[in-house]
Every structure is written in C-alpha cells, then in structure tokens.
Hints:
Elements: H1 3-9, E1 11-19, E2 22-30, E3 36-47, E4 53-63, H2 64-85
Antiparallel strand pairs: 1-2, 2-3, 3-4
Amino acid sequence: MSEFKERHENEIFTKVLKAGRRTYFFDVRETKAGDYYLTITESKKNFGDNGEATFEKHKIYLYKEDFKSFQELFNESTDFIIQQKGEDVISERHDKDFKSKSFTIESDDEV
C-alpha cells in the first residue's frame, strides 16, 4: 500500500488552523490495534530564490496516555504568556498599521 493511501486511510478526524504563512493540522489517526492518537503538524510556506514555494513541516505525535500532562503543560505555558505579555501580539509584522516594505527600482531614464 502506498504511504499516501495508508496515511489517509487511518485519518479519522481533521481540523485545520491557517495562521499567516503557517498552517496547523490536527489529525486524529488510528493505530493498527484500533486505538486513536493525535498528530499535530505545522506546515510553513517558504519561497526559494527562484520564487518557488516549498513547505517546511514539523510533526508531533501525541498518544492518549500523554493527553492530560500535555494539556496541563500547554495550558500552564499559554496562561504564563498571557499573564506576562497580555493577549496583544507584540511584533512589528502584527501591528495594525504594518505595511510590508516594498522595493522600487529607479531607472536612470527619467521621462
């Protein structure tokens, strides 16, 4: 069986979060024994020098026996960030007035 076919046959449930150049996939999959586990995939779109898009992917496999501990540490970590820095994003790229810097090419041939 091809890897693509096998990968999609054991998907039970999928949710997608698009966040700028990043996309997060939350996939519930089934083990060969018939139990479920979660994969969380971060896919980041990059552009090469030739302008061609590529995707960098990172994946976490999370099994039921780790759900509670993972959730506790995730909640503790995100609560800490919100308590320390608030919910507003502190980044030039996320400013409400942010405009990407565009480049202009000036020519010596002025009309």
